[in-house]
Amino acid sequence: MDQIPGFEWYDRLPKGIERKSFFLDKTRRSVSWFLHRLPEATETLSDQSADPVISLELNAAGVVEREVDGQWQSARLAADNLTLTPAYSVCNWHWHGEPLEIIDVYIPHELLRTIWSDEFNGSDSNLNFSPLLQFHDPVMAQLLKSLLMSLDNGHSSPALLRETITHHIIVHMLGMKGTTTAERSTTGSSLPLHILRRVLNYIDERVGEDTGLQDLADVAGISKSHFLRQFRERTGETPYAYLLGRRIEQAASLLTTSDDSITSIAARCGFNDPSHFADTFRRKYHVNPREFRRANR
């Protein structure tokens, strides 16, 4: 695995620490994350990242002590507590309590700056976060858990899904009161109809492909953050939800007009996992693909 600058212990795990899973986005179009299992007690570990890091303690029952830029704090953590570490801050910490599973999520700083400017009309000259050793936010906790669920679960457009989750994480982080180091204001608009038609045509022509959020934003001629917000305001759903719906509609049409196998149709419509295809199809049509074909032939 490529070394994470400032997190060298990720490549040389200290005794007792286990890496359970991770996703490293070298393109930096979405977050990177690492899920570790900590033992009952750790040695003091040192971190420093050019990106802000938000961590979710999945099953915490113990005490963490942390030094950020020379100031020590301690807190008793419980399940689904969160920790926020600013970019560029030297952080020394250690844990003692029950064995702990923790997911560390790295937020690409360039995405933060873009969304801060596009969504909040903010200046990125001093954009960073205040350190928070312990806080509770059910929405953020669910967003971070969705990263785990999105890995290797057969989603038909994983890049678009990851980028959409990333956008929601960043918008939620920037909207939390008292965490950012710069002032903000909000504004909004919806996608012009002629641009929406161009994007929808692009999606329809590539329904079975792994289309990313950046691809769609490029078609619209605006930034990813502007596109995601304006598309949702115009259509009432995210680009990923729309793409998924179009894939299911195309699959339904093929089930009634072709003799191809259900597995072939699923693959043609962008579903690599037949069980994911069947579950998604059933949610829309309330029957499985085989029953749908039988009733409509």
Quick structural overview:
By secondary structure, the protein is an alpha+beta fold.
Report on this model:
The chain is α+β, with helices and mostly antiparallel strands and 297 residues long. It folds into 3 domains: 8-175, Sandwich (Jelly Rolls); 193-236, Arc Repressor Mutant, subunit A (Orthogonal Bundle), CATH 1.10.10; 242-295, Homeodomain-like (Arc Repressor Mutant, subunit A). Helices cover 40% and strands 20% of the residues. The strands form 2 sheets. It has a 6-stranded antiparallel sheet with strand order 1-2-9-4-7-10, with helices on one face. Helix 1 (109-120) packs across helix 3, helix 1 packs across helix 6 (224-235) and helix 7 (239-257) packs across helix 9 (274-285). 33% of the residues are buried. Residues 197-295 form the HTH araC/xylS-type domain. Keywords: DNA-binding, Transcription, Transcription regulation. This is Helix-turn-helix transcriptional regulator. InterPro entries: AraC_XylS_family_regulators, Homeodomain-like_sf, HTH-like, HTH_AraC, Tscrpt_reg_AraC-type_HTH.
Describe the SSE topology.
Layout: E1 18-23, E2 32-38, E3 45-47, E4 53-57, E5 61-68, E6 71-78, E7 81-85, E8 91-97, E9 100-106, H1 109-120, E10 132-135, H2 138-149, H3 158-175, H4 193-205, H5 213-220, H6 224-235, H7 239-257, H8 262-268, H9 274-285, H10 289-295
Antiparallel strand pairs: 1-2, 2-9, 3-8, 4-7, 4-9, 5-6, 5-8, 7-10
Helix pairs in contact: 1-3, 1-6, 2-3, 4-5, 5-6, 7-9
